[in-house]
Amino acid sequence: SKTVARIAAGEVVERPASVVKELIENALDAGARNLDIEIKGGGTGLIRVSDDGCGIAPADLPLVFTRHATSKITSFDDLTGIMSLGFRGEALGSITSVADVELLTAVANAPSGCLVIRRDGRTSDKPAARTRGTSISVSHLFKAVPARLKFLKTDATETGHIVNVVSNYALARPEVRFTLTVDGRRSLNTPGTGQLRDTAAEILGRETASRMIDVEAAAESLSVSGLAAPPDAGRANRTGLFFFVNQRWVKSPMLSRAVEEAYHGLLTVGRYPVAVINLTLPPADIDINIHPAKTEIKFHQDNRIFNFVRQSVRSALIGESP
Ligand code: ADP
Ligand code: MG
């Protein structure tokens, strides 16, 4: 029923930033190198994500809004070795149950693209022109779910959550060019050079990025790479830490503590570290939370990873080889 679909959708679509996250993940899974994101009114007015990925073939279009239909995974075993970001086939179905959606897509060498309009539970489609890739526009988010609308904060706060999501994915994928336009104003524009420092310049500031120290270490199956700001470039709050595991954005209090300990005794009192840390390890050594809307992670060898990250960052900061 509609109600059941809307309740279930709440698990994936908590707020506008969750929609942005899911659409970005789909675009990255489609191999996009250019990703343009536009929002209005904190995301409740409009969210549009356009990519130059592979597009969706006409034959696959009837399936994309069907929950649990996904093209990305064939067996449960794949979950441990998962490389794509999406794997539950829930995002688009959930989004369409709480918003109006327009999807314009085209694959390479097709005579035409296709525009699919999904409004008030009805779907229509027609041929439409587009270069290869997909644009998805989401409007009237939560208009049929007043309880969700009431839970949302101000437009400025919701916009802040979206900027945070886009910043994280941009840092995770320096080879992809991201733009974010907020209420008609360009708010982010990463160059997609493949150099983390270039993306960091846009997101953390040119001055900080130019002074950041390379973090680079490997031990057996574990490796870390990234950038750490010098201690005198610390922030007045805890918003400066970014973690990615196998290119997936994760939140981990353990990793935050490891980096904070690496800066111990070096930072001015009341200042917090700024760092972008990429960890690579065998997928079998982690549990990615299979809840699609969450970014939590569990490591099987917590202590080993804690020590490795703390030591690697510490060595970089004090100029010693690890
Ligand atoms: P999942 O990502 O878990 O497969 P979604 O509901 O997020 O499920 O997306 C459903 C399907 O729609 C995807 O499996 C993919 O085939 C297709 N799709 C969605 N967004 C895009 C996109 N930007 N480019 C290409 N295909 C897409
Ligand atoms: Mg997805």
**Average of the residue pLDDT scores:** 89
Shape: elongated
**Percent helix among the residues?**
25-40%
Q: Helix- and strand-based class?
A: alpha+beta
How many β-strand runs? Answer: 15
Strand order of the largest sheet: 5-4-3-6-2-1-7-8
Helix-strand topology string = HHEEHEEEEHHEEHHEEEEHEEEH
User: What is the domain tally?
Assistant: 2
Q: Report the portion of residues in β strands.
A: 25-35%
CATH homology superfamily of the largest domain? Histidine kinase-like ATPase, C-terminal domain
Q: Give the uncertain stretches in residue-range form.
A: 73-83
CATH class of the largest domain: Alpha Beta
Gap between N and C termini, in Å? 58 Å
Cα Rg: 20 Å
What ligands are attached or bound here?
adenosine-5'-diphosphate, magnesium ion
Protein name: DNA mismatch repair protein MutL
Keywords: DNA damage, DNA repair, Endonuclease, Hydrolase, Nuclease
Organism: Candidatus Dehalogenimonas loeffleri
GO molecular function, one term: endonuclease activity
